[in-house]
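To close the chapter, one final illustration. This time we ask the reader to focus less on the individual chains and more on the assembly as a whole: which components sit near each other, and how the overall shape emerges from the parts.
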Amino acid sequence: MRAWRYIAAVVFLLVGWQISSWLAGELIIPQPYRVFLLLLQEMKEPLFWLHVRASGFRVVSALIISFVLAVPVGLAIGSSRRLDHWSKPLIYLSYPVPKIVLLPLVFLVFGIGDAGKIAMLSLILFFQLLITTRDAAREVGSEVKYSLYSLGGSRWDLFVHGIWPSTLPAIFTALRIATGTVVAVLFFVESIGTRYGLGFYILDAWGRAYTPQIFVGILLMAGLGVVLYETFDLLERALCRWKRM
Amino acid sequence: MAASSPDILRVQNLGKRFSASNGNVYALRGVNFTLSSTETLAVLGPTGCGKSTLLFLLAGLIQPTEGVAYFKDHPVVKAHREIALVLQNYGLFPWKTVRKNVELGLKIRKETIDTERVDSLLHELGIGDKQKQYPHQLSGGQQQRVALARALILQPSLLLMDEPFAALDTLTRERLQDVCADLWRSHQFGMILVTHNIQEAVRLGKRIAIMAANPGQIVTIVNNPEAMTENHRGSDRFYDRAREIRNLLEVQQETI
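The assembled structure is written out below.
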């Protein structure tokens, strides 16, 4: 059923794409079949896979780093009134700053290579995950706490049996939202100081005004997003079974 | 029976004061009573008279600002392994199955999980076939049974219940009161039940404490030895007692 829904969505998008191509002209929007033919050709080239691997590595690394840093901090802040009290001004002052403007600084500190790109992506994802996790942990009701403490539970038990499982759905939602952000920012960071990555792949095609290649890059970026999105969906279904019962 | 059982709970001048914008507010003040190991006490009173505060103090979840509650001669300063609490909205964990919810207390206390005893209790409570379901898949009455099972699996000496049947329809509530009476007769534990339902208090409380508000205090305790017996509900004595309690509550209301 899920597969059929996907197929229906793909058909719908392809039809829209084809119509747009007819309306706008093939110089601006190439026909889908041309793009897919190019994609098949490109898949035979080792260089193409270098672009895919570079982007995949940066995105997955950034997701892991930001998850490892932001989720424990968010849980700690959200479940401790004192910590929340002290960290709130810091979060509120730093969260609204558009992180992308820190790109030059991040590149200065971490370099222009993979480390700088991953650091930039991680920085943006960190705040998204931190805020969502903190808010979710704050929402854990007093009933959960009283219930657990009355059973003889400690703060650690409250974390393991109460806070962590109750915040997991919100964390997965944050990860799904972060997926969209990370792919968008990926294009930006890969436009600077690299010769590998899907962002560079698209910019390179743009420089040559070769629109089918631009669309291959767009397709791959969308594919990367779908893979991440589905992975988080799969993990949520496995870890939060109670949500779908 | 109650007279021959030792006291497990002694409450002496217990009080709880909260800071408010207009000074200190007493949620509870000067509460005194004792409870034997097989006695049940129903605490009845208007909304906001400190019934739940009293229960939370006895459970060790909040600390008194005055007085002390002794459980088996030790002051209650934190949750005690022999005291179990059933909360108003059951306090079940939505992410755990019925069985995992019931076993949670044992797991936290690092006690061996006797699967046969868990099975037996779940069947005794009529939820043996619901073990793999999640709380939101159950009716309110079934959720209440899970909460009872989770408390009773710990074999508590004292069971505290905070308006446990308040959210249920009349028939389910009465059925669960009978289940509760059956469990008390077979397991024999001390019980304090907070309620605002007169018939519930008469059905389950061997003694009925009537509370008044501002500040929350116990104004009188009525003996009700017929409580918990079979065929109690519907008898003349049941309705006579309910009328008596109602009159006492009305007197309290008029004096406010």
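Helices of chain B lie at 51-58, 98-108, 115-124, 140-152, 170-187, 198-204, 236-255. The beta strands of chain B are 7-20, 23-36, 40-44, 66-71, 74-75, 83-86, 158-162, 190-195, 207-212, 217-223. With these observations in hand, you are ready for the problems at the end of the chapter.
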